[in-house]
């Protein structure tokens, strides 16, 4: 049977954060006769949908942070290994396998739908909510792959042997309309609020906003009168978004501590891991953190000692933030005027790199910078140690350009010689919980953890983007401002002064460029947002996809091309310079065929579905 072949080919084993042992011994008849058991069945669907490890488009997994190197925001891995940067260097091919719809998961969703609707014992209220959750989960699963491939096989029922199992791909429009219809059903039937980890009508509207922007670009080429933008705005209104940003919480609270994350009013939907079956291995900090067991130069040992063992076994280099990303964080100058950091007066008045660029004492830079980026001379590891990314520093990669030429200059290989530390001069801090202790193995570090799936900060920017693309620049500014004020920490009047003269919604226009920066610093390391946003904006310029082809030859996205940038700080911390570098696979390259990923050729031939343009 075709589906069994596809299933064996595409589905690999994965770790679920919910233990299903009690339920795999319960019969289907028992499951569909009990509201509690049916709810448990749906809980497992949440785990499988939201915990999917498809790193190109995952919702909430360690891969969602590591995939940032799809863009020039991050360099993934160490300098002697490429890791997940094939996509960045245009080395993808149709023999790669980036996943496809999970037929087994869809069968379980449709089985649940059929049995819940047929039940004579479930209350109407239970049926309504359960069906809303199932529509939401089906939409979430479909959207993850629609982003990657465009049109998908639409399966909306339990398939039997009497059905034609050679299901063709639907058009991109029909696929997105199917997803949006599910989310509209969910928004109309789910409760306004829900227990942690369960979808509400707010979650359905928030996801619909994300889907609508992508649909507008790929289906309609981002034309101003696209009905998808109207759907985004309608969902934003249903969420109660306002100029005050009243739903927003302190930014660091959502990403730096489990206790503050679960209390945050901004998080609409999260995916939690419980310490009874979760360890450091299951979090981004295992893959994004620094490694040090004391193997660094004598100079670093004397001037930058580390008194604890930062031992994250298996840590493979993470995704080091680049100077490209750091440059997007704005600064309030002496008079409060919002500027790019290199245009601020501090650059000429500062006595050292910290005063010129980071302002760590006065915190004048966008507050999200301090919550997201670890930089030279910061305290780290529950404030136990001060880390130095500078030349010959205790966590600067000895093989990176930070320490290039050190053997000629100093007579030895400078920096940290373990090659598991920063190659760019920065480390990720967002999603890193401070309260982590030093243990021989990360599997011994048990911890509760929360991944953000949907939150109001993104919803505000989605609302802003819909208005921006429709050409209503004043409304767009209204919804750009709240995250700058509430999360960036900038003065409200100064934000409006910064935004007021900006205009335009095309590449190079001042308002569009400002929006790109704001979205990048707000959403970095979440759901690979910047990558899909860049593709969405590029597809708008390309005119969308019609009849399996791009309307024109395809826009080449400048932000997805060229070398990565890092910072080299002198040993005394007083001066700096920038350098360019690449992963082992080479510099970032982009061709229009990247707007839709290649479908694995073996699967494609078995299924009979058409290949995406450029990958034939």
From TrEMBL:
**Primary subcellular site in the record, as a coarse category:** membrane
The protein's matches in InterPro entries, at most eight in alphabetical order, are given as: SusD-like_N, SusD_RagB_dom, TPR-like_helical_dom_sf
The answer on whether this UniProt entry bears the keyword GTP-binding reads no
What keywords would UniProt list here? Answer: Cell outer membrane, Membrane, Signal
**In what residue span(s) does the SusD-like N-terminal domain sit?**
17-213
Which subcellular locations apply to this protein? Answer: Cell outer membrane
Q: Is Nucleotide-binding found in the keyword set?
A: no
List, alphabetically, the GO terms of the cellular component aspect: cell outer membrane
Tell me the superkingdom of the source. Bacteria
Where does the record place the RagB/SusD domain? 298-615
Family label: Belongs to the SusD family.
Q: What is this protein called?
A: RagB/SusD family nutrient uptake outer membrane protein
Instruction: Tell me the organism.
Output: Arachidicoccus ginsenosidivorans
């Amino acid at each position: 049977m075709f589906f069994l072949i596809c299933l064996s080919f595409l589905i690999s084993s994965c770790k679920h954060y919910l233990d299903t042992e009690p339920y795999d011994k319960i019969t289907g008849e028992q499951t569909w006769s009990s509201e509690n058991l049916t709810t448990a069945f749906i809980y497992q669907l949440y785990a499988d949908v939201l915990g999917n490890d498809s790193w190109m488009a995952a919702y909430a997994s360690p891969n969602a942070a590591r995939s940032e190197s799809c863009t020039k925001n991050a360099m993934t891995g160490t300098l002697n290994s490429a890791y997940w940067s094939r996509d960045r260097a245009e080395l993808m091919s149709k023999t790669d396998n980036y996943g496809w719809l999970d037929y087994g998961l869809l069968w379980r969703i449709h089985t649940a739908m059929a049995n819940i609707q047929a039940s004579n014992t479930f209350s109407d209220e239970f049926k309504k909510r359960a069906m809303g959750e199932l529509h939401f989960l089906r939409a979430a699963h479909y959207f993850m792959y629609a982003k990657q491939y465009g049109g998908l096989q639409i399966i909306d029922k339990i398939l039997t042997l009497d059905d034609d199992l050679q299901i063709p791909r639907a058009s991109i429009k029909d696929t997105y309309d199917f997803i949006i219809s599910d989310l509209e059903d969910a928004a109309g039937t789910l409760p306004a609020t829900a227990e942690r980890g369960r979808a509400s009508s707010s979650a359905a509207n928030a996801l619909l906003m994300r889907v609508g922007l992508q649909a507008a670009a790929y289906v309609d080429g981002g034309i101003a009168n696209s009905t998808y933008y109207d759907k985004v705005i309608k969902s934003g209104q249903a969420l109660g978004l306002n100029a005050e940003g009243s739903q927003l919480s302190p930014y660091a609270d959502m990403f730096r501590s489990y206790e503050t994350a679960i209390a945050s009013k901004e998080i609409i939907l999260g995916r939690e891991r419980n310490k009874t079956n979760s360890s450091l291995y299951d979090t981004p900090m295992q893959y994004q953190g620094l490694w040090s067991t004391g193997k660094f130069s004598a100079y670093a040992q004397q001037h930058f000692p580390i008194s604890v063992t930062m031992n994250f076994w298996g840590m493979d280099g993470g995704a080091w933030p680049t100077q490209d990303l750091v440059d997007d964080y704005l600064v309030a100058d002496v008079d409060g005027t919002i500027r790019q950091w290199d245009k601020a007066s501090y650059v000429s008045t500062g006595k050292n790199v910290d005063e010129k660029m980071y302002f760590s004492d006065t915190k004048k830079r966008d507050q999200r910078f301090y919550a997201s980026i670890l930089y030279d001379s910061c305290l780290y590891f529950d404030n136990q140690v001060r880390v130095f990314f500078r030349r010959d520093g205790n966590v600067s990669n000895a093989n990176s350009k930070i320490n290039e030429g050190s053997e000629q200059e100093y007579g030895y290989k400078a920096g940290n010689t373990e090659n598991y530390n920063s190659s760019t001069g920065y480390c990720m801090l967002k999603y890193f919980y401070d309260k982590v202790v030093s243990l021989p193995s990360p599997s011994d570090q048990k911890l509760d953890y929360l991944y953000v799936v949907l939150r109001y900060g993104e919803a505000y920017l989605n609302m802003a983007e819909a208005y921006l693309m429709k050409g209503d620049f004043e409304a767009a500014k209204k919804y750009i401002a709240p995250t700058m004020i509430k999360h960036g920490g900038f003065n409200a009047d100064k934000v409006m002064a910064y935004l007021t003269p900006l205009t335009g919604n095309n590449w190079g226009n001042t308002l569009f460029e400002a929006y790109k920066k704001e979205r990048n610093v707000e959403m970095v390391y979440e759901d690979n947002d910047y990558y899909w946003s860049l593709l969405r904006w590029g597809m708008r310029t390309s005119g969308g996809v019609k009849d399996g082809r791009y309307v024109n030859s395809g826009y080449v996205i400048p932000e997805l091309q060229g070398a990565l940038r890092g910072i080299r700080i002198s040993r005394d911390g007083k001066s700096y310079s920038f350098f360019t570098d690449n992963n082992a696979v080479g510099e970032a390259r982009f061709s229009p065929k990247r707007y839709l990923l290649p479908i694995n050729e073996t699967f494609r031939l078995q299924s009979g579905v058409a290949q995406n343009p450029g990958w034939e």
